Automatic annotation (TrEMBL), chain C:
Protein name (record): Ciliary neurotrophic factor
Compartments where located: Cytoplasm
Organism: Pteruthius melanotis
UniProt similarity note: Belongs to the CNTF family.
Single GO BP term: astrocyte activation
GO molecular function terms listed in the Swiss-Prot or TrEMBL record: ciliary neurotrophic factor receptor binding; cytokine activity; growth factor activity
Length: 490, 314, 195
């Protein structure tokens, strides 16, 4: 026996192999080993030229006896430094494609249970593409072994749609066992896992990505998968023709840099073939801006109306439009807002909740490209903006005083109202008369104006607001004209 | 045996005297006239930068025996340029014809081959006896959105070229101009002219495929035409003519629903009726000035006329 | 051979036909305008050849001049019912994809849909005039439309509008055939025999 070599995958066991100086029929051999003088020798018979034995702390003595041959016995002393440590070839547990986002999710076991705690493991993940399996990227991934089998997960976003051509992933690992003095090496590469491209599927033709939404300024690759016998004449993005790259015999691609905003129906990516055409639509827009000037008020203590400035238009419409939702943290109530993307002002209504004055709003804004939010903490009793007073009428009238009545829609029972009456008469300038009164529930309010001139035509109008914590006046009511009666003869 | 040798204008031509050696004594003639020794290189005839005038029969005779050793017909010409192809339906819905010509002559024989494809169907283009550069296709389908693709390939000894036209069925419908245009004054109406015409005889089914018409008229003394579009009928009375002024009148036609306007019809002239001058002696005759004289054919309008998307003129 | 018409029926048919011809002409003009707007708004190539789209009735017909009047009316009716469903689908997709953006295109589509519905009703009237059974909608109803990608939806829309523009011309021609006085009696021919 000669050329004894030992290799370990897990720092516990090692596999030793040898060969014989003379060739000949495979013989039964006696294989014995002992790690040091204290432990008894372990022997077993084998016809193989390999044997699995423990990895020694420092050295191990191996005796190989081949009965019935000259020079039958050979003894070897193997030191740890002579033993190679090559981790076992890792196996990919799953490779999951995320077609809409062109992402790959890789999961594998770190096989940590076979190693002592706390070893540093370095993984290399290799992504390959096309029929020729050209390397796209190679990434290093670090993990710490915990003496348990841990499933590691890693995501990768491809710069081209996964449908365009097949993608392959391989991994290998290197374990930095500092206490092990023997030579250490990378494991073998794992078998490659593949995500087949559409160019491997019969009838898989089309333009990809299909109906994607991307941010303005993105660099995007589009590919045209076609049948083997079809000759592709050109690929256009919008109205511009682009130079094509061949990915496989059934797949060609173009690369669009710094994509500009598309119109409402999206930008067409068209692949013209000898006898037909295929296409896709891409919507290039903006992520929503953070809503500005978020403000909430109530006009009737029934509905809280929040408004805000949306910022830059997203350029996305219909199914891809920017969507708004109003979440109130205290009540955990969420309301989605119906917003017309064509007009600039945004409004959303939230119901006034019983026995809740303070509202902690989060206005959430999202579209397929991104999201944003604004928040507002508000006490609605300090945000009362009554509706315009209606049905302003005169309920009493004499030569020097007039009693007015008006109606305000809304429930103000919890607060006091401050109303301002504008008094205009022919020969005097405009006067304002303030009056405050307890709020009612969709009720009328009255005020008495004294000190008027007899037989004089007056023009009245009224507006109201919250008496405590003024926020905003209502609009002025419609004007009312009334003449005081003549003074009684003195 | 004499054969034809085609060469491009401007080419350098070398002719060998059949199987004679380079240094053999020979005599070359062009159309029977001896060629000067300066054109010879040994027994080879060298013609530099040939032009059209050098086409002709070239013969080579052995020096002493005057035995004809080689003869060829040199034809100097050019490869064909991209041919000009035009397709039109003037007898819709029967079919359409395509005609073609070369933008510049090639001075050597050319062969034309035309293919007509409708979607995936090859259609037969039946060559017209006269003119030779025209053929016609019968519609198998009507009202089709599938485009017609016509490819004309022209080949001669010096090269090949082709032109392709792709069009919709409706786009090439262009009737011939209206025929038998007549314009007459209306007695006792000094400002009226009565114009009548007929559908072009080439239009097969005016009842099912009615034509509409476009009338233009102007007094000879003015340049500005007046127009009137008529959706049916083949006559019209002009009611705003200048009294006593001679008018020139033309009519164009178009399918009621599709295609483009025809060229303008032959122009006719007419002068509205005028009052018989009172003091004139009895002999003065006022002859009706009805004439349908043919003025020089007015070049078809090349600008768009009324109908959206309709372009007249070829 | 159907018995020739009574004068009143012939008069009524000719009236219906001429109104139908005018409606077809107006519809075609509106569809052609809509086609221009649609092509521009959808970023399509006006000269693009669009393969026959499933579910879209083809106006192309062979031996058109040999069709009987009933064939003409029934084929027209089936086509315009199909276009009604196709245009309604386009309108729905339009709202879904664009929301309030480009409401102009939505309005134009709705206007053409209205005309197509009116024309279908007109054809039914003509069939009733000839005491021909009007096929019920289920019999004629178009098959459910397959879910398409956005680009395929755009192409289908282009195909629908192009075919509708062709149909409008064909319908006008068909109605002219129907309106043609019968040579023998000078009255309108029975539908069965109006080549």
């Amino acid at each position: 026996p000669q050329n004894l070599k030992c290799l370990t995958h897990n720092l516990h066991k090692m596999v030793c192999t040898w060969d014989f100086s003379s060739r000949g029929r495979r013989r039964q051999t006696d294989f014995c080993y002992t790690t040091n003088d204290l432990t008894p020798q372990v022997c077993f018979k084998t016809k193989e030229r390999r044997a699995e034995i423990p990895v020694p702390e420092s050295s191990i003595t191996v005796t190989i006896k081949t009965p019935g041959t000259a020079f039958a016995t050979k003894e070897f002393t193997i030191h740890q430094k002579d033993i190679s440590f090559v981790p076992v070839t890792p196996h990919i547990l799953s490779l999951t494609p995320g077609f809409p986002t062109s992402t790959l999710n890789l999961k594998w076991s770190d096989n940590g249970s076979v190693f002592p705690y706390g070893l540093d493991a370095l993984w290399q993940i290799q992504i390959l593409r096309k029929e020729a399996m050209e390397e796209v990227t190679q990434v290093a991934y670090y993990s710490k072994l915990t003496h348990e089998d841990v499933i590691l997960s890693w995501n990768w976003t491809s710069d081209i749609p996964l449908e365009c051509t097949s993608h392959y992933v391989k991994i290998r690992c290197y374990i930095n066992a500092t206490q092990f003095v023997g030579p250490k090496d990378w494991s073998d590469w794992s078998p490659a896992e593949v995500i087949p491209g559409k160019d491997t599927e019969p009838g898989g033709s089309g333009v990809f990505p299909l109906d994607a939404v991307v941010a303005v300024g993105s660099d995007v690759t589009f590919c045209c998968v076609h049948e083997e016998d079809q000759r592709i004449t050109n690929m256009t993005y919008g109205s511009k023709s682009y130079t094509m790259m061949q990915l496989s015999s059934r797949s060609h691609a173009i690369r669009v840099l710094n994509a500009s905003a598309s119109n409402s129906s999206g930008t067409n990516v068209v692949c013209r073939l000898e006898n037909g055409m295929d296409g896709s639509v891409v919507f290039v827009g903006y992520a929503p801006d953070t809503p500005q000037n978020l403000s909430c008020e109530t006009s009737n203590f029934l509905i809280i109306k929040c408004t805000w400035k949306p910022g830059r238009p997203s350029g996305l419409y219909g199914a891809r439009r920017t969507k708004y939702s109003l979440f109130e943290r205290i009540s955990s109530k969420n309301v989605s807002c119906e917003v017309n993307e064509m007009n600039r002002d945004r409004v959303c209504g939230f119901p006034v909740l019983p026995d809740q004055k303070t509202y902690d709003f989060i206005l959430g804004v999202s579209n397929p490209i991104g999201q944003a939010q604004s928040s507002l903490l508000v006490d609605i009793t300090q945000r009362v903006h009554p509706k315009t007073p209606e049905k302003l009428t005169v309920t009493g009238n004499n030569s020097t005083s007039i009693q007015l009545r008006w109606f305000i829609n809304g429930s103000f029972t919890g607060i006091r109202l401050l109303c301002q009456i504008e008094i205009v008469s022919g020969h005097s300038e405009k006067k304002l008369h303030n009056v405050s009164m307890p709020g009612g529930k969709s009720s009328s309010y009255t005020a008495q104006l004294n000190g008027l001139h007899p037989n004089t035509k007056y023009q009245f109008s009224v507006r109201c607001s919250a008496a405590d914590h003024f926020w905003r006046w209502s609009d002025w009511s419609r004007g009312l004209e009334q003449t005081t009666s003549e003074a009684p003869p003195s | 045996d004499s054969h034809i040798q085609y060469e491009r204008v401007g080419a350098d031509v070398t002719m060998k005297c059949g199987s004679m050696d380079w240094d053999a004594a020979v005599t070359w003639t062009a159309n029977g006239t001896d060629i000067d020794e300066s054109h010879l290189n040994g027994s080879y005839l060298i013609l530099k930068n040939v032009d059209l005038s050098q086409s002709g029969q070239y013969s080579c005779y052995e020096g002493s025996s005057w035995h004809l050793k080689y003869q060829t017909n040199l034809r100097v010409g050019t490869p064909p340029k991209e041919p000009v192809l035009m397709c039109r339906s003037n007898n819709y819905p029967k079919g359409f014809y395509c005609s073609w010509h070369l933008p510049t002559p090639t001075y050597i024989p050319n062969t034309f081959n035309i293919s007509v494809v409708h979607g995936t169907k090859d259609m037969v283009c039946e060559k017209d006896a006269v003119p030779k550069n025209r053929c016609h296709i019968r519609y198998i389908q009507l009202f089709s959105t599938v485009k017609y693709k016509v490819t004309l390939t022209v080949t001669n000894a010096l090269g090949k070229n082709f032109t392709t036209l792709t069009f919709d069925e409706f786009a090439i419908v262009k009737p011939d101009p209206p025929e038998s245009v007549v314009a007459k004054p209306v007695p006792n109406n000094p400002r009226r002219l009565e114009v009548s015409w007929q559908n072009p005889s080439s239009w097969p089914e005016p009842e099912s495929f009615p034509l509409k018409f476009f009338l233009r008229y102007r007094p000879l003394i003015l340049d500005q035409w007046q127009h009137v579009e008529l959706s049916d009928g083949t006559s019209h009375t002009i009611t705003d003519a200048y009294a006593g002024k001679e008018y020139i009148i033309q009519v164009a036609a178009k399918d009621n629903d599709i295609g483009t306007w025809s060229d303008w019809s032959v122009a006719v002239h007419a002068t509205p009726w005028t009052e018989e001058p009172k003091h004139l002696t009895t002999e003065a005759q006022i002859t009706e000035t009805t004439s349908a004289s043919t003025s020089s054919f007015m070049a078809p309008p090349t600008t768009k006329i009324c109908d959206k998307g309709a372009v007249v003129g070829s | 051979m159907a018995a020739p018409d009574s004068p009143s029926t012939a008069l009524r048919r000719r009236d219906l036909c001429s109104r139908g011809i005018r409606l077809a002409g107006k519809m075609r003009a509106d569809v052609v305008d809509l086609l221009d707007t649609y092509v521009e708004q959808q970023g399509l190539d006006a000269s693009a050849s669009v393969a026959a789209v499933e579910g879209v009735p083809l106006a192309a017909v062979e031996r058109w001049d040999e069709q009987t009047g009933t064939q003409r009316l029934l084929e027209n009716l089936a086509a315009y019912r199909a276009f009604r469903a196709l245009l309604a689908q386009m309108l729905e997709e339009q709202r879904e994809q664009l929301g309030e953006a480009d409401a102009g295109l939505g309005r134009a589509l709705a206007a053409v849909l209205l005309q197509v519905s009116a024309f279908a009703y007109h054809l039914e009237e003509l069939l009733r005039l000839e005491s021909r059974g009007v096929p019920s909608e289920e019999e004629d109803g178009p098959p459910p439309l397959p879910r398409l990608s956005l680009f395929e939806q755009k192409l289908r829309g282009l195909g629908v509008l192009r075919e509708l523009a062709q149909w409008a011309v064909r319908s006008a021609r068909d109605l002219r055939q129907l309106a043609k006085p019968s040579p023998a009696t000078g009255t309108g021919p029975g539908l069965a025999e109006s080549p």
